[in-house]
Design goal:
With about 725 residues, this protein is an alpha+beta fold. Helix content is about 20%, strand content about 35%. The chain has 9 helices and 42 strands. The strands form 10 sheets. The protein has a 6-stranded antiparallel beta barrel. Helix 5 runs antiparallel to helix 6. The radius of gyration is 37 Å and the shape is globular. It comes from Brevibacterium sediminis.
């Protein structure tokens, strides 16, 4: 069922979290006839207020205000805004649908069994639990068998095999084909919301309402890898061969761009829905509340879709959530969008008591850095041993000197020449001992110098690591991202890629070159705007920190021209029969997002019995827009048109992966419609005598009058589609 979530009247408030429980604290009394202020810091006060509202589908306590989202507010719910100055009720917030939910279809990367049937879901993030065992994080509703009629749980699904990547919908396949590698494992933990919230129910969310699950992986069949695939190697059935990022930690999302990988839509990137997230913490997903945050995408180009449930949502190397559900919606500006709800991972882990590590506990220690440190320690030990040995030799030399001294005492009775000889010998030995000490000191100093250098190399002080940036494809105005040393300056330079020579026609047509310096954050992440013009660019990036500059990292950025959003507007969607048969009224259809001069065709693909199929082709204007007007010709028999009509719009330049724009409208009896009857008769409109007694012959030619008045933006072009219908037969 199609859902719209937010009206254009959404207010912006600051974000804060809401927990349940606690004691009620009354707000100070104000004037008897004025609203009070709800103490939103009191969980009990918030809960008591929510209990008075009906059909709550979302709520959030943000910046001293309580916002309640309902599909349609009744008198009691509306009264809350009168009772409290800081309570706002937003209508039009409907229940979302969980992807791969009731019938367990969809998913990304792994299959599940549910009795005689089954389905698929997406893996979120791989790692190890507190005991060092391999696990996969995903969505909790993937583990549930849900009765389609009642919405109640009927047990848990069984984890099956991974899905063969080359057959997944993300790369144009039908999916549901096993890899043959064996069953992944079993559910270790799963939870999907709390109490069922059927239509009209007053059930409210609990603070542990999450959509989260853990799969215990069979290590004998699968190895876990911490990165997230970019789906570019699906054709080779090896998703681990090319990663969009390596995941190193779990964290809270930040407003801005997020990415997701899933088996239905592959790798996608869109913006978090700030206006929504500043108001709501919990959303009703298939009858159960889920804590998380929203992401919005252009209509028809979703961030996620059915089958992406459980798919990993991330920012850089940080895991921030898994896909829970979504559907069509309207944003705060009244624009149609595709909306996705993400179960935030940090919150889910906290409430579930689960944990994940992205460091392999089974990796052979030590790592590279540890090996260098151990090597340095070993060198120090050898130097120490060598020094001790040298000192031992010196001690022997000292013993010899003592012996010599005794001999010298003994020779005091002897001739002076012998004593002088003895003294010379002692001096020679002393010189030799000093030389030995000097050699040992030099050797120790040399060894220490080498050790210092080895230690310095191991610490990374001698050589600054180059930035980590891979080849990227972005749209005009998009972001280039990478990773380098934390809190450092990264300089990026670029020029057109290829063999264009300065001054040549190719170089003159190519985008301009340039450079920019950006700073990394505390985690080392950085981003910068891509060049404004479409094309291929050769980039070079260096990082500077502590007075040192790294070697350059070279990569390629491909900038694609931003595609105009395709959109179909049908106005009105419901029309009275007597208005439908008037040329200057009827139904106006506007299609946007085509190329200038492109032939665009509208077809009436379905309608009430007796309607003749009809199609009309028209040329898109300079803005890529084309309009059509649909009306009936039998003005003397308007009730003959009652019913629903489905239309489809396609462009001559459509590619295989571009879907037709679809829409519908309904003709209703005058007593049920928004007009009809004698509307417009005062202006002398024809009541039906001009159609030749119900002739089935359609009118032809361009009909711009009604279209221009209805759409406003069409200056040229347009076409009229005329529906004709046989008269109803009287029994």
């Amino acid at each position: 069922m199609q859902k719209k979530l937010v009206q254009s009247s959404l207010a912006l408030t600051a974000a804060t979290a809401l927990g349940l429980g606690g004691a009620f604290a009354a707000s100070p009394a104000v004037a008897d006839n004025g609203p009070q202020k709800l103490n939103v810091q009191s969980d009990a006060a918030v809960q008591k207020t929510l209990d008075k509202a009906s059909g709550v589908n979302a709520y959030g306590a943000k910046n001293g205000k309580l916002t309640i989202g309902v599909e349609k507010a009744d008198k009691t719910t509306k009264k809350l805004e009168q009772d409290f100055s800081n309570v706002k009720v937003v209508e039009g917030v409907k229940e979302l649908k969980a992807y791969a939910g009731n019938d367990l279809v969809g998913g990304a990367g792994y299959l599940v069994k549910a009795g005689e049937g089954g389905g698929a879901c997406s893996t979120g993030f791989s790692g190890w639990d507190a005991d060092g065992k391999p696990i996969v994080l995903t969505a909790g509703h993937c583990a549930k068998i849900i009765n389609e009629q009642s919405g109640e749980f009927e047990g848990d699904t069984t984890v099956d095999e991974t899905e063969q990547p080359s057959t997944a919908p993300a790369v144009g396949g039908e999916g549901f084909k096993q890899t043959g590698l064996g069953v992944i494992g079993s559910w270790g933990y799963n939870k999907f919301g709390g109490e069922l919230v059927p239509p009209g129910s007053d059930a409210q969310p609990n603070d542990d309402d999450i959509d989260f699950a853990v799969i215990n992986v069979d290590a004998s069949k699968y190895n876990v890898k911490t990165g997230v695939t970019d789906w570019s190697t699906a054709g080779d059935d090896d998703l681990a061969a090319k990663l969009a990022t390596d995941i190193t930690k779990v964290g809270a999302h930040s407003e801005g761009t997020v990415q997701k990988a899933g088996r239905t839509t592959g790798l996608t990137e869109n913006e978090t829905w700030t206006a929504y997230n500043e108001q709501f913490d919990f959303v009703n997903v298939s009858g159960r509340f889920v804590h998380g945050f929203g992401v919005k995408a252009p209509s028809g180009k979703p961030f996620s879709a059915p089958g992406d449930s459980g798919g990993g949502v991330f920012q850089g190397d940080t895991a921030v959530g898994v896909i829970s559900g979504g559907g069509p919606a309207e944003d705060e500006n009244g624009q149609e969008i595709d909306f996705s709800w993400v179960a935030d991972l940090d919150y889910s882990l906290e409430k579930s008591g689960q944990s994940i590590s992205f460091t392999d506990p089974n990796e052979e220690p030590p790592g590279d850095d540890e090996a260098e440190a151990d090597a340095s320690a070993a060198a120090d030990g050898e130097d120490a041993d060598a020094s001790a040995a040298a000192e031992g030799d010196d001690a022997n030399a000292s013993d010899n000197a003592d012996a010599d001294a005794k001999e010298a005492d003994a020779s005091s009775a002897a001739e002076g020449d012998d004593a002088e000889a003895s003294a010379d010998a002692d001096g020679a030995e002393a010189d030799a001992s000093a030389a030995a000490d000097g050699d040992n000191a030099d050797a120790s100093s040399s060894a220490d110098g080498k050790d210092d250098k080895a230690d310095s190399d191991a610490d990374g002080d001698e050589k600054l690591e180059a930035p980590k940036v891979g080849d990227q494809t972005v749209v005009e105005g998009g972001k280039i991202t990478g990773k380098a040393a934390p809190n450092a300056d990264v300089k990026l330079t670029w020029k057109p890629a290829g063999d264009a020579q300065a001054g040549s026609a190719q170089a003159q047509a190519a985008p301009a070159e340039g450079s920019v310096t950006v700073k990394t954050d505390a985690d080392g992440n950085f981003s910068t705007e891509a060049p404004a013009e479409a094309g291929e660019y050769a980039y070079s990036a260096t990082v500077t920190a502590n007075g040192q500059t790294s070697e350059a990292t070279n990569f390629t950025v491909t900038v694609r021209a931003a595609e105009a959003e395709r959109k179909l507007t049908v106005e009105p969607k419901e029309i009275a029969a007597s208005d439908f048969v008037k040329e200057d009224k009827g139904v106006q259809i506007t299609a946007e997002g085509f190329e200038e001069g492109e032939k665009v065709t509208l077809k009436v693909v379905d309608g009430p019995e007796g309607v003749k199929d009809y199609e009309m082709t028209q040329t898109a204007n300079a803005e890529g827009v084309v309009g059509f007007s649909i009306y009936g010709t039998s003005a003397s028999n308007p009730e003959a048109y009652l019913g629903k009509y489905d239309v489809q719009v396609t462009g001559a330049n459509d590619t295989e992966d571009e879907e037709a724009l679809t829409g519908s409208f309904q003709v209703v009896a005058d007593e049920d419609g928004n007009g009809g009857g004698n509307d417009g008769d005062d202006n002398g409109n024809d009541d039906g005598n001009g159609d030749g007694g119900g002739s089935d012959l359609p009118r032809t030619g361009a009909e711009l009058t009604g279209l221009a008045a209805g759409a406003g933006l069409l200056l040229v072009g347009g076409a009229a589609v005329v529906l004709t219908m046989r008269r109803k037969k009287n029994n």
